[in-house]
Amino acid sequence: MAPLTEETPSKTPNYNTALRDANKLEPAARFVLSNHLLLRQGAQKLAAKDYSQSRQLLTQVETDSPSAIQASLLIAESYRLEQQPEQAKDWFLRTAHHYPYRTQTLSGLISAANDQPVDQTGLALALYNKAGEQADFALAQLQQLKSSQFIDPLAVIFPSKLDEQVRQAFLLRCLHNPDEDLLSESSRLQEAVSSLLYLQKQRQTLGQKLELLQSQLQDYQRQRQSLQNQLDSIAAQQRSLESQLIPNNLDDDQVRIRRQLGQLRNQTIRMDNQIAFIDRTRQQLPAMVDNLNAEIQQLHQQAMAQLKSSNQAVKAVLESSYRAYYRELRNLAAEAKLQHAERQATYQP
Q1: DSSP letter string over 192-212?
Q2: CA distances from 289 to 203, 214, 301 (A)
Q3: Is residue 317 part of a domain?
Q4: Could you read off the pLDDT of 232-291 as tens digits, one per residue?
Q5: Which of 79, 95, 156, 224 has the most other CB atoms within 10 Å of its CB?
Q6: Helix or strand holding residue 53 (H, E)
Q7: What count of other Cβ atoms lies within 10 Å of the Cβ of residue 273?
Q8: Do 97 and 72 touch, CB atoms closer than 8 A?
């Protein structure tokens, strides 16, 4: 945070003009620059001790911009400088909640904890704790990711057993790898990633169809069993009525019995037709399920082939990003624990 909170320079930049100029840029560049200008303007107001105006500017920084984490940390810092420790603590922890497992967040928490005066030792310890907890959890998740000695690209690119927020933080590191940009390493790699995203959607759609077919199969089984139970009951009624029939007797009671038997036979024919339809459909469903399973398997193979075709570039990005991310997390975890222990040892309430 230090570079953004230095004394106000003798010549203050014209941010309004810069923001207007930023609006003339392409959307992506405009998004990054306009948010960074708001961050710089808010930081200058913070350095000038205009805390309210600083927060008003910093809260305008969009939450998905590259400047969002630092803006959130500066808002927390403004409350601390304004002697509002509870609000400062809430904002620091809010930053950790909204941007978890990112080294910029954890480094900011530790830096903020280091800046706390003695009378704010409680806040400092809470920030050290939060930074240490997140660093330790992310390290454990990364160890799980590489438990088989190699990183599965699908486990990073798509939701997987890896904690979703850790996965997103790591993927973000891969996308912004300073040595090898995952998205611009080659046009072939970009196509591979795009194809994988499309194939994943197809796979999800097929998976939903498969679940629906399996559910229908279970429903048909229940319907067939219910119809069979009804047929068994009707057959028993028919046998009972047939035993009461008297040949060549057409009195009212015998006519009623014959009418009932006719109705039961018609009902039996309808139910037999329903069972026949269910049986035909049930015979077709397994083949449909097998076809869908085959399609899903084929899509998976296509995805793996796409990855293999650009494997070297993907592997280089994942491995270098993994090493850098793991190293930084380990250092941050150690620093948080060390600073926590030192602050606690020297604190005398």
Answers
A1: HHHHHHHHHHHHHHHHHHHHH
A2: 14, 8, 18
A3: no
A4: 888 888 888 888 888 877 788 888 888 888 888 888 888 888 888 877 777 776 777 677
A5: 95
A6: helix 51-58
A7: 10
A8: no
Q: Retrieve residue 244's tokens.
A: 């009461």
Q: What angle do CA 304, 306, 310 make, to 5 degrees?
A: 110
Token pair in block for residue 342: 């030192």
103, 325 Cβ separation under 8 angstroms: yes
8 lies in the same domain as 133 = yes
Question: Which are the contacts of 315, defined by CB distance < 8 A and separation ≥ 6?
Answer: 151
**CATH (domain of 96):** 1.25.40.10
pLDDT (tens digit per residue) in 76-110:
999 989 989 889 989 999 999 999 999 999 999 99
- Residue pair 95/67 in contact by the 8 Å Cβ criterion: no
Structural contact between residues 115 and 337, judged by C-beta atoms closer than 8 angstroms: no
Clarify whether residues 191 and 143 are in a common domain: no
> What is the rounded distance in angstroms from the CA atom of residue 168 to the CA atom of residue 349?
41
pTM for this predicted structure: 0.59
Report phi then psi at 165, rounded to 5: -75, -35
Domain region containing 278: 187-309
- Higher pLDDT, residue 268 or 348: 268
Between 5 and 246, the more confident residue is 246
At 227, list the tokens: 């119809």
Tell the residue number behind the tokens 């941007």, with chain if given. 99
Do 247 and 142 share a structural domain? no
Domain shared by 26 and 140, yes or no: yes
Distance, in Å, from the CA atom of 244 to the CA atom of 265, rounded to the nearest integer, reads: 16
For the chain, the domain total comes to 2
Which own/partner pairs from 337-345 qualify as long-range (CB within 8 Å, at least 24 positions apart)?
A: 337/128, 337/132, 339/110, 339/113, 339/114, 339/128, 340/125, 340/128, 340/129, 340/132, 343/113, 343/121, 343/124, 343/125, 343/128, 344/125
Q: Distance between CA atoms of 270 and 282, rounded to whole angstroms?
A: 18
User: Sign of torsion, CA 21 23 24 25?
Assistant: positive
Query: Are residues 194 and 241 located together in one domain of the fold?
Result: yes
Answer yes or no: are the C-beta atoms of 110 and 335 closer than 8 Å: yes
Shared domain for 10 and 144, answered yes or no, is: yes
